[in-house]
Amino acid sequence: MNTPTQGGVCACHGRPWVDLLLRKSKVVREGERALSIRAQEERGRAWADEHGYCVRKVWKENLSAWSDVRRPKYDAAMSAVLNGEVPALWCYALDRFSRKGAESVVPILGKARVIFDYERLDSMDERDRRWIIDRAENAREYSQRLSHNVTTTKGRQRNEGRWLGRAPFGLTAHPDTRRLSPDHTPYTCLVSTREEVTPWQVVECIFNAVAAGTAARALARMFNRIGLRTITGAQWRAPQILKILHHPVYEGWLTVAVGAAETATRYVDANGSPVHCVEPSTLPEMIPSALASKARRVLAGAEWTKPKPKDGLPVHALSGKLICAGCNGAMTKSGRGYRCDLTAEGGVCAAPTYVMQKALEAYVVDLWSTRLHASDDDDPLLIAVAERWQQLQRPTETAEVKEARAELKAAADRLDKFHADDRAGFYSGRSAKYRIPTKIAAEKRLDAAEDKVKELTGGDRVDITFLIEGKAAETWEAAAPQLRRDLLGLAIDRVIVSKSPGKGKRFVGDERVTVVWATPEGAEPDADEFEQAA
């Protein structure tokens, strides 16, 4: 704790204050000769004792002193000495103070006392002015030369596809070539089976599971439940899974961090071409681009993956579509009617619903038939019906169309994100070189997605005349039980049923039933989505 002050003097000892500015680069480039923070502090305190000062505050920095780095502690220390808050500021050496050259030292010359211990220079000493400026310029030239050499070397290594940092989870770097490859070394065991698991198996599981529709949070819970841990032994969390899913390195691409959020993006060489960080023979082992793209689309909500239907799927006309208005839970077939599922399982529903199957189905079918007959050609409901009928008739082709449309949405979102990042200034400074390649890549992806959708849907017409022009009821009567359920599902998403107003009361559909009609794929629901049957 600091002792009381009085006019820049320690009230307890009667000696003037001095602050210590200590800095060491976060990434040490100077080798073993770089003096540690602790050693600098010891020297600073020894200087203060020798020259009759008391140390007021120690400002410690563990970062670069170059021009593109914010140094809040340096700024605070300079403000204190320039404003007279503290009589002196001690720094071990000029290159620890700043590497911006003369511009950093001119403001203090003859105005504030800054001691450069290694050079034995004092900014208030007239004879030291030239020496301080010269040494500051020397430090700047050294830093520029070092920065140029490091940048040139790193650029050459990146163009060769070398991974310069620590290998990401699931990958390992060759000690000589620094090329990456999947890590097949077992690192943990499952709790139940004691089966050994490798990091790359976890990565593949993440991409496959999310592409199949599993949420990142649910996947993290599943990993933790079966005893799977991260490489450090910690539990999995959703952000860790999201980071893996969005990282291009798992497809074999060399990456760099761009923007304030340090988003990993593909590195491009001087020709604007992305660079692989794996050997050509290793590339087939990486995550396929199609799988990675699908997982990201599912994650973003641009593609919805439906679970495969199971054997024994109910064939009752309204099974799976009925909702109890009392608890917003499902209703299931029970005896001759449909009952609130929560109540049937022993739960408590605020207004448990039961309705006779025959009466409800007759009402809903009549409403369904009337709605289809009254729809115009451009009615969104008929568009949704046509889309769903095509899915029933040609599921394989429809899945391809759905995936193409999902890719189109994801490509449009990616281009929008580029423009948003560009407006936010993410592609400024050192990241400017990635602006045009990123823009071109996003536009090419969008063009390709648009062409694919046109190729798959061009001239494609779906015939649903058998459901319109008053033919829906006739089609229903002639259909098998499973087809009846499918026919209703073409136009209806949910049927919400409220509790009867009294025991033994006659069923009145207009008072108890609300139908949620289908909307075209990707369309936003209308404000009056819940249409009260009338």
Major sheet: arrangement of strands? 4-3-5-6-7
Tally of structural domains: 3
Helix vs. strand class: alpha+beta
Supply the CATH class of the largest domain.
Alpha Beta
- Low-confidence region ranges: 1-6, 27-33, 302-313, 525-534
Q: Round the mean pLDDT to the nearest integer and report it.
A: 79
Task: State the gist of this model.
The chain is of the alpha+beta class and 534 residues long. It contains 17 helices and 20 strands. It has three domains: 5-144, Resolvase, N-terminal catalytic domain (Rossmann fold, 3-Layer(aba) Sandwich); 171-300, Putative Large Serine Recombinase, Chain B, Domain 2 (Hect, E3 ligase catalytic domain fold, Alpha-Beta Complex), CATH 3.90.1750; 308-375 and 468-534, no CATH class.
